[in-house]
Each structure stands twice: as C-alpha cells, then as structure tokens.
Design goal:
With 379 residues, the protein is α/β, with parallel strands linked by helices. Among the domains are: 171 residues, 2-enoyl-CoA Hydratase, Chain A, domain 1 (Alpha-Beta Complex); 85 residues, no CATH class. It has 13 helices and 11 strands. Strands 1, 2, 3, 4, 5, 6, 7 and 8 form an 8-stranded mixed β-sheet that branches. β4, α3 and β5 form a beta-alpha-beta unit. α10 runs parallel beside α12. The longest helix is centred in the last third of the chain and has 29 residues. It is elongated. The chain starts with 16 loop residues before the first strand and ends in a 5-residue tail after the last helix. 23% of the residues are buried. Keywords: Hydrolase, Protease, Serine protease. InterPro entries: ClpP/crotonase-like_dom_sf, ClpP/TepA. GO terms for molecular function: ATP-dependent peptidase activity; ATPase binding; serine-type endopeptidase activity.
C-alpha cells in the first residue's frame, strides 16, 4: 500500500454478536436478534470462519447463553451456527427472548436447555427456495431434490431434540406449525418456560415489535390471528386504530390483556385493517350472489327469487333448482286439472256422428263408397 494511503477495508457486518458479561462468574452470551442474514454469511465480509474464530475466542467456558429473537433467515447460516455450537464443549443454554421462527429454530436446537417465555413464539415449516430466471424441468427437479435434503437435515435436528419420529416432524413442518411458549414446551421443542414475559406491539398488519426487535410478519401469511392475540400482552397504543387512541392506557391494557375478543367492535378495535378486508370481501361475495340470481331468474317466479335474495339467502344454483322443482310441480298440476276437466265435460261419451244421414249406395258412407269403387272387394 503506498505511503499515506488509508485502508479502505470494509468493516465487518454481523447478524450476531458475542458478549462477555461485566459481572464475575456470568456466562458469555451469543446474541441473535433480527434476521439470520444470507448475503453476508457466505460473502467476503462475514464467513463461517469468522464466526468460529469469535466463538473460540470466548475460551474454555462452562456455559454459553444463546439469546434468540428472530423470525428466521438463511437455513445454511443457521445450520452452520447449530453445528459449531453443538461441537463446543460448553453447556449451551438457549433463551428465546421473543420469537424463534423458521431458520432461527434450527439454531435453538443446539441448546442443551431451551427456555421460552409463555407468550413467546416458536414456528417450524418446510424450507423454501427462491428462484429467479429460466430453468428446465430437470433443473427444477434438481432444486426439488436439494430442498428434500435440506429438510431432512432440519428434521434430524428437531428429532434429536424432541425424540419425535422423523415422519411426525416432517408432517409438523409441512403444515407450518405455530406454538406459543407453553405449546412449544408441551411439544418438546423447548424445555421450560422463562419467568419473564416479552413485550409485544403491533405497529400495523405487517410489522411486529418484539422486545424492541422489528419482525416482518408479512413473510408469514399463515400465522394464526389467535396466536397474535395471545402474545400481545403488553401492547402499546400503536397496536390500536385511531378510534381507540383517546382511551386511557389502563383501558387499552385491560382490553388487550383480556385475551378473549368477545364482540365485533373488540375485533375491529384490535384488528381494524383485517376486519375491513373481511367486510369488503363479504360485500363483494354478496353482490356477486345477487347478480348471479338475477341473471338466471325467470318471469313468474318472483317469490322464489325474492326469498333467496333477501329472506333466506342461497346461491344462484340453489335458486335454479327451486325454480325447476316449481315448474315440475306446476306442470303436473296442469295435466291433472286438464284430465279432470275432460272427464267432467263428458266429452269422452260423445260419438262421432258427423256423417250421420249421409248415404250412398247400400247406405254406405260416400267416402267408403269411393274407396270401394277404386278398390273393389271382388273383381
């Protein structure tokens, strides 16, 4: 490097940090808050080698406390951290300070003891792979096989910790299973509940603040709403819509700490955007139903149509079946009434005397005589 030139070496990026406690006889900590990044893990700035060096620099310690509050991230980085922690001779105590979802749960499995608060969140699902570009069928098959191998490696870690059968683990992952703290302990993924609870706030439908760490929940569209309601025990005013901003802090806490939403207004207050979306979808479905009924309605069946539209709502297909049944009923009544009218009129007893008094040769009907002439009986 020429004299006088300053180093332009890029400062290393971390999605983890090691922290030695200032207190004596306290175990060092590995902090994993936020996303487990992928672009930096395998890049030039941060490598598995650097993580290993920092882990080794802790020295010969009896215990390492791993604190996790993460919505997940790169599965390869998570697997690498898991392996290095499992290889370390120290006791690994994992404390989930909020969330351990997706790839973050892989790291958690390295713990000899795993603790989670009662309103914490633990989620497992199948690994996913982003694809950009154009690929042949065989290339997609290869990617699919890679995903199977990745999933099996995750299954192995879960099965080792929980003692569950691999097939059961695979099924739990396939359905994207969410647990609160107690459920995670009951399922065997965690060992015990932490005494303290986590502070959770929801800023909007896609951003969750868990112990001051922002988590993008839009990545998890299948997250149960009931789970959000259970974990939000210390909700800030940003959790509520403008109609509740004038409530006192005590009123808001009373409402959110009461985990059972009992009325529609309660639901609207806590989840205004979600309830609006549900209402809009319902209105659209109802307009479509009415339009379909009107398009297939027939004249003369107004009572059936009006009942179906407003009094006892049913689909257009059901209305069509009702109209067909009524038509069949009306047709049967018409035929029965017609037969009765014929019988009452005695028309069946009237003989055909229209040719009476018309005579021809041998008093035959003139038409018969003409036929006999053309076609005589005997020649």
């Amino acid at each position: 490097m020429p004299a006088g030139q300053k180093s332009t070496q890029t400062k290393n990026k971390h999605f983890w940090s090691f922290r030695n406690s200032a207190e004596k006889n306290t175990s060092p900590e590995l902090i994993l808050y936020g996303d487990i990044a992928s672009e930096t893990w395998w890049g030039d700035e941060v490598t598995p080698k650097q993580f290993t060096e920092e882990l080794t620099a802790l020295g010969n310690v009896d215990e390492i406390v791993v604190r996790i509050n993460s919505g997940g991230g790169d599965v390869f980085a998570a697997n690498a951290i898991y392996t290095r922690l499992k290889d370390n001779p120290a006791k690994i105590t994992v404390k989930i300070d909020g969330w351990a979802a997706s790839a973050a749960t892989i790291v958690a499995m390295a713990g000899d003891t795993i603790e989670i608060p009662g309103n914490g969140v633990f989620m497992v699902h199948d690994p996913k792979m982003g694809v950009l570009g154009y690929f042949s069928e065989s290339e997609f098959v290869k990617l699919s096989e890679e995903l199977k191998v990745i999933k099996q490696s995750i299954v192995n870690g879960y099965a080792l910790k929980t003692g569950k059968d691999e097939a059961e683990i695979a099924a739990i992952m396939a359905t994207e299973t969410w647990y609160d703290g107690k459920q995670a302990v009951d399922a065997g993924f965690c060992d015990k509940l932490m005494f303290e609870e986590i502070e959770t706030a929801i800023e909007n439908t896609s951003k969750l603040i868990v112990n001051s760490v922002p988590l993008d929940i839009s990545r998890f569209p299948d997250m149960p709403i009931s789970l959000i309601n259970r974990i939000a025990t210390h909700t800030q005013s940003s959790f509520l819509n403008t109609s509740t901003q004038n409530q006192t802090k005590e009123e808001r806490e009373n409402m959110t700490e009461n985990k059972d939403i009992k009325t529609v207004n309660d639901l609207k207050a806590v989840y205004p955007e979600l309830t609006k979306q549900v209402a809009d979808n319902a209105a659209l479905a109802e307009r479509t139903r009415i339009k379909d009924i009107e398009e297939m309605a027939l004249d003369g069946f107004d009572s059936i149509v009006n009942v179906a539209k407003f009094e006892k709502p049913v689909a257009a297909a059901d209305v069509a079946m009702q109209i067909v049944a009524e038509q069949k009923k009306q047709g049967g009544s018409y035929l029965a009434n017609r037969e009765k009218d014929v019988e009452n009129s005695n028309v069946n007893k009237v003989e055909n005397n229209s040719q009476e008094g018309v005579s021809g040769k041998n008093d035959n009907n003139p038409f018969d005589a003409a036929i006999d002439k053309v076609f005589p009986i005997a020649k």
